[in-house]
Hints:
Blueprint: E1 2-6, E2 10-15, H1 31-42, E3 52-53, E4 62-68, H2 71-83, E5 87-94, E6 102-112, E7 117-121, E8 129-140, E9 145-151, H3 158-165, E10 189-197, E11 204-208, H4 215-224
Parallel strand pairs: 4-10
Antiparallel strand pairs: 1-2, 2-4, 3-4, 5-9, 5-10, 6-7, 6-8, 8-9, 10-11
Amino acid sequence: MKVIYEDNHIIIVSKESGEIVQGDKTGDQPLSETVKQYLKTKYNKPGNVFIGVVHRLDRPVSGLVTFAKTSKALSRLNEMFRNGDVHKTYWALTRNCPPAESGRLVHWLRRNEQQNKSYASDREVPGSKKAVLDYKVIGRTDNYTLIEVKLLTGRHHQIRCQLAAMGCPIKGDLKYGARRSNPDGSISLLSRKVEFVHPVSKILIQAEAPLPDERIWHEIAAAAL
């Protein structure tokens, strides 16, 4: 866990792929608990430490996660996420190139709970929710394309499902059509940037995650910058 930003009300950390943000049926220690222990040790706090989870990242995804350190920040951040006032940017590595250098994807996603997977449709179907994202190609190597994604809605597996529906499954994402897995079980999707007005101080917060420690990420990012 890397701390990217911290003040009295919020903490933004960069999670590794494989970590869970909240506790689940696996019983593995979640990132929220790791953050609590970090704060307890850093500030020598007695008793329980408050940490509010305002959003999650899929287990195989890496990058920025924002937590609230106070109940005031939690309630305000929850409202900001619901209203689309938190702007998140993702980077994805895909083997295929999109049909256009940039564009907007609009699908209706239907979640299958048993499979823990979403399915995309071009029109509304029973049980589906509208999903919208903007994308643009920002880098290439001989084998991979680096796509920047800005989420306009927040749906289950949205980026994974919509990019796959475009014909560009994310590297390592077997669930959505990648040909092979990544050696560490990750998928090549990074929560790269987050930007929002601080829920208490009202200053502009901008945070950026470091690149995963994998050569392909650094090669393709260097070509893009």
